[in-house]
Task: structure prediction
Amino acid sequence: MNLSELTIGDCGTIVDFTDQEMSVKLMEMGCLPGELVKLEQVAPLGDPIAITVAGYKLSMRKQEAATILLKR
Amino acid sequence: MSEQLKVALIGNPNTGKSTLFNDLTGLNQKVGNFPGVTVDKKTGIAKLPNGHSVEIIDLPGIYSLYAKSRDEQIAFEVLYDRKGTLRPDLVIVVADASNLKRNLLLYTQVADLNIPVILVLNMIDVAESNGLKIDINKLSNKLGIRVIAVNARQNKGVDDLKQAIANATRVATQLRTIKVEELAPELIGEISEKFPVSSPYEALQLAHQHENLSSLSTEQSDLIETLEQKHSFHSSSNQAKETVARYSFINDLLFDCVTQDESAKGETFSNRIDKVLTHRFFGLIIFVLILFLVFQSIFTFAEYPMSFIETAFLNLEQWLSRVMPDGVFTNLLINGVIAGLSGVLVFLPQIVILFFFIAVLEDTGYMARVTFMMDKLMRKVGLNGKSVVPLISGVACAVPAIMATRTIENWKDRVITILVTPLMSCSARLPVYTLLISLVVPDQKILGFLSLQGLALLSMYLIGFFAAIGAAWVMKKIVRSRERGYFIMELPIYRMPRWSHIGLQMYEKAKTFVSEAGKIIIAVSVILWVLSTYGPANKMAAIDNKYETLAKTAGNDQKLLEQEKSAEKLEASYAGILGRSIEPVIKPLGYDWKIGIALITSFAAREVFVGTMATIYSVEGEGDNLVSVRQKLSSAKNPETGLPVFTVATAFSLMLFYAFAMQCVSTIAIVYRETKSIKWPLIQLAYMTAMAYFAGLIVFQLLK
Ligand SMILES: Nc1nc2c(ncn2[C@@H]2O[C@H](COP(=O)(O)OP(=O)(O)OP(=O)(O)O)[C@@H](O)[C@H]2O)c(=O)[nH]1
Ligand SMILES: [Mg+2]
Result:
């Protein structure tokens, strides 16, 4: 599954990325394989989303979230 | 004098670099609780305990050395430009102690560049209350540098930092973090041979960033390109490898030096606030309510100070006209300068209240949430969530707002934001709106508490906002780009605003507003007064003669004659000629030639409108009867029809004209500077003028 499919309050562990260019940006922000992420909020219009990762809150569009592959 | 040491503050966005800069230098650089407050470099001087002074450079925040936006590029260039005048002798990496893992990524990169470095763990108070225990000595030993815990907000630990700066050596002491050479051994080797680099990581950085470095010549850049191809170097996969290696170094380090007190964990305060403020249903409602509250307060709270300033100026005018001798100079002072100044200064309370609310939004962290909530909407119209910050600060002034677009990574998103930001109603329009609203909208309360005038003002701001959105949507279809847009942004924790900082910011903003507006208004009113008092000599003499004969005729009301004379003289003056010449163009919008004069002078700055109207109506009006600008305008009559000049149709048409027109020389200049092309400011001027003209035309024709 990917990050955009989580429901609020759910967690997952990052395993891989589907897009290399995006993965570089995401990794700099602390989204690394092996990190635990939790979906915290979804914006009122349904996009973007906010997750907790590496101890802080990060927001991204669903489009970016979909490039992050998770395992439960 | 020995050369001053240069110290750069580098760190992730929103880690408190500017707060620390202010502590060190005593300056008042803008601080706010969202990423991307600082978008330009700024230098100041710090006094050290040993009596020496050093130059401190505050920079925009960056997450890594791989810059993605214009503001990040500025920070990177200062670090990298080895020959540049700003090249730091010492770098202070400012890390957020409550979020060390991500913050240390940048530290490891800077450290590997082999520049002397000190690590500041800022926000140590937040880390402690989150239950984090950081072993500073161990961290310091493992990294081989000084590490200092600081609470910049409360000025704690800053003296230690100053001492550390004073003790700093000019050679880098830090231990290497990762084995950089292993990332691309042959390429790094060959670049190190051909370029004067001081570390393998600098060679690797050259490979990644040669296209963005202004210090490299085209031949040098091409040479690196060839080398990359020879060793089949792939930039983004190499970056990915580097980042993974750095994080594994950091994980090991933090495992040894940081312990988390588990009992302190749990749902944070910030998270609970977020559940309400960005709630799926209530989030947007709360946002609209907040805006509504802001505009209501602008009208309600500003009422008393405004009428106070108004009477103060009237008294001043009256007093001056009593004590000063009659003559040209008195006339210029009272009817030109003071009338013009009072016209704008009356609105200072409203502007200060507006700045106050914007500062609170920025300082609490709510601004970042607005960005988060609006991204989808913004994207639909060709903007980006990050466009919200420029758009909202455009309500204060378009110039810093356009600079704030530097945080937008995507060029197309950024250009469109720059093009539409001046449509947001800036504070210079506030005097124009308030004046016109007070002329035609009754001062009533509906439902007992909603001020009708406040509502009218809110609608003007909404019109500006929707015009910006609409214009962006059209431009999205026109401006071409192949770049892919994205939105990845940190949401900072909520913080209590720092009232002293907000107070200081408001004071500074008010001071700048008064002095800037003051300068322009004095200059324009002097010029205007000259232009409206003098005219072609023969015509002016003819009018004098005419009234001299009329005055001798018995039975004529002398006072009425005086008034008619000055009215006729104004029309014959140079200003009158100017106004008359554009009258055919603006007549369909409902404006007479006097308003025409104001439109012309407003091209320097919008707030000049009020002053111009004040000056023109004072030159014309009965000299001995001093009344406020508001009263002068509301009693103004069209001499041909005898009807009031400011009808509902004219006033609304004018307000829309001011809402859309690009009447601000400073904005044109900053757009030119930020886009580095004359094309964009010209496009902006053209489309905004056209919009203003047609909106004014349509509204006047519908309402008249
Ligand atoms: N609790 C706490 N808050 C701090 C501390 N230092 C700064 N802040 C707050 O953190 C926020 C960000 O501060 P800034 O100084 O604007 O951060 P910056 O690093 O300059 O941010 P950018 O210019 O966006 O890169 C502000 O709300 C500060 O009041 C600190 O030591 N403790
Ligand atoms: Mg800053």
User: Anything to note?
Assistant: The longest helix of chain B spans residues 282-323. The first strand of chain B starts at residue 6 and ends at 11. The radius of gyration of chain B is 30 Å. Chain B touches chain A at residues 63-64, 66, 68, 98-99, 101-102, 105, 236-237, 239-240, 243-244, 247, 270-271, 274-275, 278-281, 283-284, 372-373, 375-377, 379, 385, 486-493 (CB under 8 Å).
